[in-house]
Amino acid sequence: MSKTHWSGQTFPRGTSPASLPDSGGRQRRAWFLILLLVVRPWGNLVWAGLEDEARIQNREGVRLAQQGDWQGALLALEAACRLNPFDDTALANLACTHNNIGVFLVKEHRHREAIRHFRAAAAQKPEDIQIRLNLLAALVAIRDLEAADREARSLLVIRPDDPDLHLQVASAMQKMEDDEAAAAVLEKVLEAHPRHGGARLEMARLQYRRGNLAEARFQVTRALEIDSRRTEARDLLARLDREEPLESTFDQETSVHFALTYQTVFSREWARDLLDLFEEAFERGGEFLGVRPAQRVQVIVYAARDLHKARSLPEWAGGVYDGKIRLPVPTLTTTPDQMTAAIAHEYCHHLVFVLTHGNCPTWLNEGLAQIMEGVDLRRAERILTDEEGTLRLRSLDELAGPFSAARDREAAERLYAQSLLMVHFLLREKGLPAMRDLLGHLGRQCTLEEAVRLVYEEPLVVLLEGLTAGT
Ligand SMILES: [Zn+2]
User: Fold this and answer.
1) % pLDDT > 70, the chain
2) Protein residues within 5 Å, CB atom, of ion ligand 1
3) CA 317 – ligand 1 centroid, Å
4) Which one has a higher pLDDT value, 157 or 245?
5) What are the residues whose beta carbons fall under 8 Å from the beta carbon of 141, sequence distance 6 or more?
6) What's the gap in Å between 75 CA and the centre of ligand 1?
7) Half-sphere exposure (CA, 13 Å, Cβ side) for 73?
8) Which H helix or E strand runs over 459?
9) pLDDT-derived band at 407, boundaries 50, 70, 90
10) Which residue from 119, 131, 247, 333 has the highest number of Cβ atoms inside 10 Å of its Cβ?
11) At 253, is the secondary structure helix, strand, or coil?
12) In whole angstroms, what is the distance from residue 370 CA to residue 373 CA?
């Protein structure tokens, strides 16, 4: 998210508003100094007076904005625009101030207020792409998908031939879970700019995520022809090399919300029963975390040994979520019913991913998945309690990274048990709405600490002291 710059004023050195945040948290000290000399013929003296007054108000507005007095700045700049509606400088400064207030509010996680300012800025300068992208990002962040979709589409119209902008819009559309619209935008970019490596890679990723592996391979190969050094493209190709030969022999079956790819050792009827269980999880997950994904979720079912071959997984892993749900079926005689817990668990990971865009610590993710799965809390307590009856807990840092790195099954069990206890504790403190808020803040790219403070009004470590105190 980027700030825009005030114009029409010369600023003395050292008075740039260094306290204003911008996109990367960087402080931009290089302000554009554009002194506009509006030459008008002598004429109506009353008009000239208003013009002077407008210039004074404009200067005052910029000065106040630099001091961080947003309200004062807005009042002065609005007055300048009223006094002289043809003063482009004042109009630009008003738009700039609204935009910068918006950026500031986003940093404060006050997205709805920010959106009002971005809209006001866009009304003054509708052709300013940066303002419009800020508005789009804020709408996506609060998941106002309808308004975001309108904004995304109007951006495409403003600059029909800007592939980079279209790429940004396509990526916003994917965050909005509208893969079809994103694919259509990317297709158009690639028609006009077949050698746009970024668009090729984005299309490859999208097709991979949707389970179209052959199309993904075609796109990623083209991306590498354009630039062979792209690490992300090479990684994706390596993934396809591992997965495509195995999955090309699989069958496919779909239900309303899931697309299942499964090894042919399982019957079609078995696959349909499994999809029914996934649809049940869809309903339960919706009630639990309040989200019902718009896109079909990709599920791949393997005989256990094959998944362990395709992925280097610890033997205790009951499933993998990597944007797709990958379920190992323990034996060929396993019935779909016996997979119910694993389905709930992995589907919960998908919901967490949709809500947080991957910005979720492992303990929170695994704790929620176990709650949706229905894991016994007392068992977790038993695992973590020592002979004296004290809970033995690991540090938060140890619980943030992947659990698959745990040295053995027992160590992994303790990590899962503690995750369950922690999430259960948070749910007991403030209930499910607070938990959904927490995930929402993480989805808006807050750090965990920030998100916890916003929702629970205490730092996480302090909050979790209640867990060991048994309160
Ligand atoms: Zn898990």
Assistant:
1) 88
2) 366, 369
3) 8
4) 157
5) 106, 111, 443, 444, 445
6) 53
7) 23
8) none
9) confident
10) 131
11) strand
12) 5
Report the pLDDT value the prediction gives residue 335, as an integer from 0 to 100. Answer: 93
Distance 99 CA to ligand 1 centre (A): 41
Q: Fill in the amino acid letter for 263.
A: Q
Beta bridge mates, 297: 258
Q: Which helix (H) or strand (E) holds 56?
A: helix 45-66
Distance, in Å, from the CA atom of 9 to the CA atom of 35, rounded to the nearest integer, reads 6
CA 346–ligand 1 middle distance (angstroms): 6
Cα 349 to ligand 1 centroid, rounded to whole Å? 7
Q: Which long-range contacts (CB under 8 A, 24 or more apart) does 54-57 make?
A: 54/79, 54/80, 54/81, 54/83, 54/84, 54/87, 54/90, 55/80, 55/87, 57/83, 57/90
Identify the CA nearest to 393 among candidates 402, 383, 401: 383
Q: Are 452 and 460 in contact (CB under 8 A)?
A: yes
* Residue whose token pair is 């349909």: 272
Average pLDDT over residues 421-448: 95
Domains of the chain: 1-142 (1.25.40.10), 157-248 (1.25.40.10), 250-283+294-336 (no CATH), 357-471 (no CATH)
DSSP 332-366: TT--GGGGHHHHHHHHHHHHHHHHHTT---HHHHH
pLDDT for 246 beyond 90: no
Q: Retrieve residue 129's tokens.
A: 């792409």
Strand order in the sheet with 251-254: 251-254, 258-262, 297-303, 325-329, 320-321
Q: How far apart are CA 390 and CA 104, in angstroms?
A: 45
Q: Is the pLDDT confidence value at 37 over 50?
A: no
Task: Collapse the DSSP code of 328 into the 3-class scheme (helix H, G, I; strand E, B; otherwise coil) and give the result.
Answer: strand
Confidence tier at 306 by pLDDT (50, 70, 90): confident
